[in-house]
Amino acid sequence: MRDSGGNLVLFELVQETCSRLSLKWNLEDLPRSLLEHILVDDEHKLLYCYVPKVACTNWKRILMILEGKWNDTDVLSVPASLAHSPGMFRNLSTVSKEERDVMLENYHKMIIVRNPFERLLSAYRNKLEGDLPSAKYFQVCI
């Protein structure tokens, strides 16, 4: 145990469970769509696996500023649509196996998680409540 948040305990529990059940995974077995969720920042040697509805818009905005893709230091000045635009970030699906292996060995890795019920409520509020264009789209669909 390293922190009071239980993060290391959870990591060890996952490893122990996978080992006990003889579960083995290989990065090559993952579908391309999952590798697209792992963003690459070569300058800062960072791999960021984003999870929708877990602050991913703000973290993408931060990465844009860090990588010099936005000329302001105010994170909220970056339009959300721009942070999510295709091709804005390099991702693990675009690199060779050899390059990916080097990155996985040497880069810092980051993923942010959230209570699943909070995430579900956030998605509901974001997609179905309010007057934003995205909310209107989903309100009409349902």
Automatic annotation (TrEMBL):
Keywords: Carbohydrate metabolism, Glycoprotein, Golgi apparatus, Membrane, Signal-anchor, Transferase, Transmembrane, Transmembrane helix
Domain of life where this protein originates: Eukaryota
Compartment(s): Golgi apparatus membrane
GO biological process, one term: carbohydrate biosynthetic process
Coiled coil stretches, renumbered: none
Pfam families: Sulfotransfer_2
GO CC annotation: Golgi membrane
Primary localisation category: Golgi
Membrane topology label: Single-pass type II membrane protein
GO molecular function, one term: sulfotransferase activity
EC code: 2.8.2.-
Family as reported in the entry's similarity comment: Belongs to the sulfotransferase 2 family.
UniProt name for this protein: Carbohydrate sulfotransferase
Origin species: Pararge aegeria aegeria
